[in-house]
Amino acid sequence: MAVDPTAPYDPENIFAKILRGEIPCNKVYEDGHALAFHDINPQADVHILVIPKGAYVSWDDFSEHASDQEIAGFVRAVGNVARENGLVVRGYRLLGNVGRNGGQEVPHLHVHLFGGGPLGPMLAR
Ligand code: 5GP
User: Which numbered atom of ligand 1 lies nearest the CA of 110?
Assistant: First the structure.
């Protein structure tokens, strides 16, 4: 079901459960601000999700309400994940879906990190 990016945070969402260790994930990175793990249904050779540790529904919520420290920490974590997974030289793509038009399904902010080969056109037509 599409996420309402203006709705209150639901602590029972699947990524909140992963953060609490209630559901397993294939972790590739963790620091004080972020957790990254492989997407369960990969859309590219490399498809990693990076999520902030704070309770934010969407990019909209995060960019409005997160502290400067949380925002800086998350952005740095995304860069670290790409570097640590050897994606920088050949390149990669970041994607953040917000709400219904964006196709967001999980109501905890996440950035998709795609790589491992040419990724094709920016949007399917
Ligand atoms: P969205 O459409 O919200 O931007 O993307 C949600 C992503 O989360 C999808 O790519 C989906 O495959 C992934 N996903 C959903 N549930 C799980 C899960 O339990 N574990 C992992 N690793 N990925 C999940």
Answer: 4
